[in-house]
């Protein structure tokens, strides 16, 4: 098994360790009638941002994107070193040393990302996403260093959220058959969203996030996009949650955080499943085809909607299902993907090497 696949599996395991305690804690907050273990929840945001998202973004930078841009992934020892660094940082999540290890992992990504600032193996010049991806990693270093001294969890959303914006021009192009988006609008949306997260919570933050939503939604061309229905549905839902986050930033911290962290980020991950498949091809060496399911989208968004309803002050026993539905929705997406991938790998008599 290639190291890229091991990195994806590590991310999935981290998702379990970060997500399950969060589900139990939120149910306990809602008044679940039986005692639930909740002591691990204080590290939930760290595990999800600097564990799960850092791992899958690291896989994209070190393996999948590297294969496409330069025709080769980062050396195995480099990928393994990155994976171990992230894992150890999580084991030390109760200490300040965890952030130093995160900085080391980010440094490894930045060092490898130098290749994206030079022409590709086909002679293509770096595009908007190349530069924004590099800038996002640099910004994340400053954010992480800042968090060593001040505990502001929402600031960490800058890393995965801006990474999504960075690669949007590439991802949406892949999903909708090479459709071009308006790079300048995406760059301005990137800047507005960055500022909105930095100055939260106030009216200025709400307006900046709204501006980021408007420019990114218009610049991505989702309204006029044609082609596959599944990604258009998922991405449209993602941008709806981003819009709602600009409103929730004024009303509810929990609704604001999760409308971005769950609603925007995970629906985007679901929508650009083409990119996940790209990772899996790079990680396994086998050309795989995955049939997406609408079940994860329905469960995730139904759970998030009921969570927001609870955050707005409503109570009902049915709302206890909010966190489990979100968790099951996310897990079902990855289980559906990995199930089909491993099935195809077993049926492949000889590993099909990717064309260099």
Protein architecture, described:
This protein is mainly α. The protein has a single domain, classed as Cytochrome C Oxidase, Chain A. Helix content is 71%, strand content 0%. It contains 14 helices and no strands. Helix 8 (183-199) packs antiparallel against helix 9 (203-220). It is globular and about 60 Å long. This is Nitric oxide response protein. The chain crosses the membrane at residues 45-65, 77-93, 99-117, 129-148, 154-173, 185-201, 259-281, 293-310, 316-337. Keywords: Membrane, Transmembrane, Transmembrane helix.
Q: Mind telling me the CATH superfamily name?
A: Cytochrome c oxidase-like, subunit I domain
Q: How many DSSP E strands?
A: 0
Low-confidence stretches: 350-356
The radius of gyration computed from the alpha-carbon positions, rounded to a whole number of angstroms, is 19 Å
What does the main sheet amount to? none
CATH topology: Cytochrome C Oxidase, Chain A
- Summed over residues and divided by their number, the pLDDT gives a mean of 84
Kindly, what is the distance between the CA atoms of the first and last residues, rounded to a whole number of angstroms? 19 Å
Structural class of the secondary structure composition? mainly alpha
**What portion of residues belong to β-strands?**
under 5%
| Overall tally of domains | 1
Reported CATH architecture: Up-down Bundle
CATH class membership: Mainly Alpha
Indicate the overall shape.
globular
What percent of residues adopt helix (DSSP H or I)? over 70%
Number of helical elements? 14
Q: Would you list the SSEs in sequence order as H and E?
A: HHHHHHHHHHHHHH
Organism: Sulfolobus acidocaldarius Ron12/I
Transmembrane segments: 45-65, 77-93, 99-117, 129-148, 154-173, 185-201, 259-281, 293-310, 316-337
Keywords: Membrane, Transmembrane, Transmembrane helix
Protein name: Nitric oxide response protein
């Amino acid at each position: 098994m290639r190291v890229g696949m091991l990195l994806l599996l590590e991310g999935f395991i981290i998702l379990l360790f970060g997500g399950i305690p969060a589900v139990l804690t939120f149910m306990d907050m809602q008044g679940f009638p039986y005692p639930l273990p909740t002591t691990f929840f204080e590290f939930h945001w760290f595990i999800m941002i600097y564990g799960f998202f850092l791992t899958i973004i690291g896989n994209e930078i070190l393996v999948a994107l590297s294969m496409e841009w330069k025709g080769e992934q980062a050396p195995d020892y480099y990928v393994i070193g990155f994976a171990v660094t992230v894992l150890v940082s999580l084991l030390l999540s109760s200490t300040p040393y965890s952030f130093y290890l995160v900085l080391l992992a980010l440094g490894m990504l930045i060092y490898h990302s130098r290749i994206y600032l030079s022409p590709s193996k086909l002679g293509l010049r770096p595009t908007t996403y190349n530069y924004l991806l590099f800038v996002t990693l640099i910004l994340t270093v400053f954010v992480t260093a800042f968090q060593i001294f001040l505990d502001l969890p929402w600031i960490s959303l800058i890393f995965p959220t801006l990474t999504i914006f960075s690669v949007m021009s590439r991802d949406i192009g892949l999903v909708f058959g090479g459709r071009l988006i308006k790079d300048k609008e995406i760059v301005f949306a990137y800047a507005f969203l960055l500022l909105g997260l930095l100055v939260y919570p106030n009216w200025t933050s709400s307006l900046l996030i709204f501006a980021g939503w408007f420019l990114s939604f218009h610049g991505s061309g989702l309204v006029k996009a044609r082609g596959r229905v599944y990604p258009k549905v998922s991405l449209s839902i993602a941008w709806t949650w981003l819009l709602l986050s600009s409103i929730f930033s004024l009303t509810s911290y929990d609704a604001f955080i999760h409308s971005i962290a769950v609603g925007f980020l995970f629906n985007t991950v679901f929508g650009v499943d083409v990119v996940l498949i790209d990772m899996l091809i790079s990680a396994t060496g086998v050309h795989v085809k995955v049939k997406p399911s609408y079940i994860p989208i329905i469960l995730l968004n139904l759970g998030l909607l009921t969570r927001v309803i609870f955050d707005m002050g409503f109570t009902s026993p049915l709302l206890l299902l909010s966190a489990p539905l979100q968790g099951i929705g996310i897990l079902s997406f990855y289980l559906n993907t990995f199930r089909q991938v491993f099935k195809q790998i077993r049926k492949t008599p000889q590993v099909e090497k990717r064309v260099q």
